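Troubleshooting log. The previous structure file for this entry was overwritten by mistake, so regenerating from the original sequence record. Sequence copied from the archived sheet and checked twice against the printout by T.R.
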Amino acid sequence: MGLGREREVEIRKPPRFIPGERVQATLHVKNDGTYAGKEIGENLVRKGDEGYVRDIGTFLQQFYIYAVEWVDRGTVVGMRARELMSLDKAAASGAVETARASTKE
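Regenerated output below.
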């Protein structure tokens, strides 16, 4: 009936990020009322902010929730994988591409 529910059970696959991995927010994240000490609707994370995955949990036995420490903000916010992008993997793939290019020369 198109109720907008997600069908994928994310935890059937390994987590996309690991603790200690450097990540970047791909979306603005506002407080939905679950973050204590901040007003509902207040920005918790801005698109482009960089942080580190501290821990991985699950929600509703369906989704991974990544506890990300946003060092510049001094906060830890639970994030979904779709809200994050790895900077470590991007840097590693960039190094591999650079190495490949230099070996071709």
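The longest helix spans residues 87-104. Archived copy saved in two places this time.
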